[in-house]
Amino acid sequence: MKLRARYPGCVVLSTNQFKNGNHIEVDGTIFKIVDFQHVKPGKGGAFVRTKLRRAADGNVIDRTFRAGEKFRSVRTESRKMQFLYADGSDAHFMDTESFEQIAIPEAAVADTLRWCTPSSEVDVLFIDDQPGDVQLPSAVDLEVTQTDPGLRGDSVSGGGTKPATLETGAVIQVPLFVEQGQRIRVDTRSGEYMARA
Length: 197
Fold this sequence. Notes:
Blueprint: H1 3-6, E1 12-14, E2 23-26, E3 29-39, E4 47-54, E5 60-66, E6 70-73, E7 76-86, E8 90-95, E9 101-105, H2 110-113, E10 121-127, E11 130-135, E12 139-147, E13 161-166, E14 171-175, E15 183-187, E16 192-196
């Protein structure tokens, strides 16, 4: 059955239009394209190898599609919201204009929550009018709440790293000169230390 017949007025996305971050529907389930690769083998038809994150629970799966296969493109809208708290099963957010509160399953946004402090402002991505993902800036400033003290002679130019626990509970590697109580800038995509804030 043709996609347009099944979803009148829907936007159809072909595998050759894939971009990282696009949302598509596969077999009735909504996924975010995390990574994809077009493959043209010597024999047989071309195909696309993908890594997809399920919007409902955050699980990542590997899936292969025939080149040119079509999918329903899922409508997404970003809204500014305030992160309130996570309770072990859901993460709670509040619309800063209407004060309406929503909950997203914590497992679906666990990676992002590593860099969120309560009351920080985030962009909540609504997928087909349902909250489904949280988007952060590429870098955030967080306080180091626990790390071993630096040793005498550990300078900015010296090499080496040590683990540090941040105010969100995330643990990352930081240079030896970083001390407890300092604010540092962290790359939210890689989880790496960037600089002192």
